[in-house]
Design goal:
This protein is of the alpha+beta class and about 80 residues long. It has 2 helices and 2 strands; from the N terminus they run ααββ. The protein has a two-stranded antiparallel ribbon with strand order 1-2. The chain is globular and about 35 Å long.
Length: about 80
């Protein structure tokens, strides 16, 4: 697993999107910061220069499990689509 030193503060779009009914956690500013913070490596398999990257949640927000973590900067991770 990639050791990451996350940059702070969180991208501005996360707070804005969290206020929306159908907010989006993968805005361009989030993608750029995750790519930089994770050195463009998948946090699981450490593949570099991802071709089809995803913004993933360590603690899932779907099905109401951790809805408060959907826009949590420390819960977002850079991952490849090959899982």
């Amino acid at each position: 697993m990639v050791k990451v030193e996350r940059s702070f503060p969180a991208p501005e779009s996360l707070a804005k999107e969290a206020k929306k009914a159908a907010g989006n956690y993968d805005s361009q500013d989030v993608i750029e910061r995750l790519k930089k913070d994770f050195h463009n490596k998948c946090y699981i398999c450490e593949i570099k220069e991802l071709q089809d990257p995803n913004v993933e949640h360590l603690l899932p927000h779907k099905n109401g499990k951790y809805p408060e973590r959907k826009f949590d900067w420390e819960n977002l991770f850079w991952a490849c689509g090959q899982r």
